[in-house]
Amino acid sequence: MSKQDHKEQSSSDTESSQTTDAEESQPPEPSLDVVFDVLRNRRRRLVMKALEERDGSTTLSDLAEHIGGIENDKPPQALNAQERKRVYVGLYQCHLPKMDDADAIEFDKNRGTVERGEMGDRYHEYLQRDVDAKSGWPIYYGGVSAVAAVSYATVVILAGPQPIVAMGALVLIGALAAYHWSSSSE
Questions:
Q1: SS (H, E, C) 51-108
Q2: Mapping DSSP to helix (H, G, I), strand (E, B) and coil, where does residue 144 land?
Q3: What pLDDT is recorded for position 147?
Q4: Would you report the helix, strand and coil content of the chain in percent, each value rounded to 5?
Q5: Hey, CA dihedral for 30, 32, 34, 36, is it positive or negative?
Q6: Inter-residue contact 156 to 65 (CB < 8 Å)
């Protein structure tokens, strides 16, 4: 091997080790499937929100009381032992290990601590997304309802009353428009 070949080999080894070091320091982003799998469960979403409210760190006991209070619609202090235990066990055995594996949180079983994970920001991107209040869907449904109402009124004037099915369709479209409008304005 010539000196030039040795230098090129040495240079490529250095570049690959730098790339490997950079890759090792930054864990890969979770796929959308993993993110959605973690966030599809209400308890896991509540864990993420609770960590945000507590500056990224809490204990399993506090988390179980907080989530138990939400699920049972009562203050955490009012939970009985069975309600608290049910949430605690579910978090300990199922939800927190799954979230830890997905890097959403860091769960230390021995200490009972829960902290925001390396990829916590990635998960919070999806928790913070709200339906755009300026969405065009309510206007679209409202327009469709208005056109349907005018068309139906014209038919009734020209040909007389029509079956109830047409009126039911109009009510359904109006209800969809009202639903989307009210949920986008909240």
A1: HHHCCCEEEHHHHHHHHHHHHCCCCHHHCCHHHHHHHHHHHHHHHHHHHHHCCCEEEE
A2: helix
A3: 78
A4: 70, 5, 25
A5: positive
A6: no
Q: How many CA atoms lie within 13 A of 4 on its CB side?
A: 0
CA–CA distance, 36 with 3 (Å, rounded to integer): 53
44 touches 99 (CB < 8 A) = yes
Do the bridges between strand 113-116 and strand 105-108 make them parallel or antiparallel, or are there none, so unpaired?
antiparallel
pLDDT of residue 135: 60
Residue 46: how many CB atoms within 10 A of its CB?
18
pLDDT means over runs of 10, the chain (186 residues): 46 47 63 89 93 92 95 93 95 95 93 92 76 61 76 75 66 76 65
128 backbone dihedrals φ, ψ, rounded to 5° = -85, -10
pLDDT of res. 151: 77
* C-alpha dist (Å) from residue 162 to 129, 159, 174: 44, 8, 18
Q: Would you list the DSSP string of 20-55?
A: HHHHHHSPPPPPHHHHHHHHTSHHHHHHHHHHHHTT
Tokens of 85: 């235990």
How remote is the C-alpha of 163 from its chain's centroid?
43
Q: Locate the DSSP E strands across the chain.
A: 57-59, 105-108, 113-116
Angle at 128 between CA 94 and CA 87, to 5 degrees: 25
